[in-house]
Amino acid sequence: MATTTMSASPAPPAPPPKAPRRGAARRGPRTTVMALPALIWYTVFMIGPIGAIFVISVLDWPGMLARVGFAGLDNYRAVLGDQLFWDATRNSAVQLAVAVPTMVAAAFMLGYFLSTKPRGHRVLRVVVFTPALISASAKAMIFWGMFAPNGMLNKVLAGVGLGSLQHAWIADTGTAFGCVIAVDIWAGIGYTATLYAARLDALPDSVHEAAELDGAGHWRRMWRIAFPMVRDYVGVTVMLQFLWTLFTSAQNVLLLTQGGPGNSSTNLSFLVYQKAFVQSDLGYSQAAGVLLFCLGLAGMLLIRRAFRPAY
Amino acid sequence: MATATANRPRRRLTLGRGAAYLGAWAYALMLLLPLYYLVISSFKDNAEIFADPLLPNGSLSLDKFGTAVRDARLDLALLNSAAVTLCALVLVLVLAVPASYALARAKGRTAAVVERIFSLGFLVPTFAALVPTFLLAAETGLFYTRTFVVLFLPATSLPLAVVLLTQFMRTVPDEVEEAARMDGAGNWTILLRIYLPMVVPGIVTVLILSFLAFWNEYLYSLVIIGPDQSQRTLQVAVPTLRSTLSTDFGVLSAGTVFTLLPVYVVYALLQRRMEGALMGGAVKV
User: How is this protein situated with respect to the membrane (chain B) (predicted)?
Assistant: First the structure.
C-alpha cells in the first residue's frame, strides 16, 4: 500500500474504429472452426446449466441420489405457495433497493471527486481500489471478526459512549441482513468509483475547463455536466450491480449468516442454494431458480430502457 | 483567466468541495480500518483483541500464521489455489485466442450471433446454475476434485476474454495479413506471429481480470471441490478456521492475511495495468 505511482489517468483501451474491410472475395481460408472449442466449452459449462435449470424445475427430485420423476408445474405451485419464498423475495427486493442506489450514487460522487484530481488523489485512488482485490471469503472473514460480540464494532461503540448500541450483529434477526448488505456496499462503492473515475478521466479536458469557467458549484458540475456525459456508462454499471446483487451477493449470506437467524437473512439466491444443498429438494430449488432468472432478465431490460439515450 | 487553462487554476474550497473531501476520506478510513484491524489482530490473542481492538500489541511473532497454516493446511491450499489458477489461465487463453481470431475475421451472421451469445455471459445466475454444474461434476466422476474446477473456471471468463480480444483483433489491418498469406503463411502462423503480438495489451487485461476471478473464486470451489485438504483451495480453507464455540480470531486473521498476500503482491507489481484492466473489463456489455 506504500506505492503511490498509480497513473493519474489510466488509458482505457477504447476500441479504435473498425478498419475498413475488403470484400468477401479476398477472404483467406475458413477460420470459423477455430472458434469451436471455446463455443463447446461455453455451451457445456454456461449455457447447458441454464437450460438444465429449466428442465430440473419440472422434475420431482427429492435428493441427489433419489429417483427422479416428472412433476409438471407442482414445483412452481410449491414455490409460489411457500411463505419462505415470499420472505426471500422481500429480502432480495430490500437488498436491491438499498444496495444498488447507495452504491451507484456514492460511487459516482467519489469517482467524480477523484477525476477532479484533488490534493491527495493518488493515495485516495489506491485505497479506493482495494476492495476490488479482496475475495468474498476474505471480506466475510474480516467482517465476521468486526461484527463478533467482542469484535471491533462493539468495542468502538462502547469506547465512544454508545455502549447501549452494542449488538450481536450477525446473530440478531433485526440486524443480520443489514450487515450482509453493508458489506456489499462497503466493497461496491470503491470498485464502482474506480470505474467512474477512469471513465471521467477519459473525457476531453475541455469539458472540465468549460465547467469551471461556467462558474457552477461542485454539486451542479457533478450532476448537471459530468453525469449526463457518462449516463450510458452509469446505466451499464447499474445493470451489472443489479445482476450481481441478485445472482451472486448471496455468498455473503452463505459465509456470514447461513440465511439466519431463522430465515431473516435468506434472499432468493440463498434460498435456491439452501433448498438444493441443505434440504435436497432439487425441483423446488430450480423452480425458484427459474423465477430468479426471469426476475434478473426483466430487471435488466427495465434498467436498459431507463438509461437509454434520450435523443 | 480564460487564457491560463493549461494548468488548471487552484480551486477555492467551497462548501460542496469541502463535503466531497470529507466524504471521500471518511470512506477511505472505512476501507482501511477493517484492514488495519485484520493485520494487527493477526499478531494478537483473543484477550488482547477484545481488550484493545485498535492498538497493535507490538509483537511481530508469526505464531498465529504458523497455527493457521498447520490447522487448515494452508500450505496445501496455497499450492492448490496456485495450480487451479495457473491451469485455468492457460486454458482461457488457449480457448479464447483462436476463437477471437475467428470471430474478428468472420463477416457472416453466424459470427455476429456467436459473439452476442458470449457477450451475454453476465446473465448466468451463479447460485441457480450451481446445481446443474454440481450434477455435471457428479455425472463425469470429477466430483470432489480440482480438475473439474480447472475445466469449469475458464468458461466463466470466456465472455469477457472473447469479447475483449475480438475487439482488439479487429484493429489489426487486413493488409498485414494478406501480405503474410502471399508468403504462404497458414491460419495458425498468422495468428501466432502477427495477431498475437499486436493484441498483447488485451491479453494482459484478460489475464489480470481472470487471475482475480479465479484466485478469489469461492462458491463453486466450496461445493464442487469440497472439504478434502489435499484438493481444496485457499478461499475454501480459510473459513474453516472459524468454530462456533471458540474461534481464535488471531489465527483467523492471520489465515485471511495469508490469502490476501498473493493478490497484493501481484497488485504491487502490476498496479497501473490492473486499474486499466478493471476499466477495460466493464466497458463492453
Answer: Multi-pass membrane protein
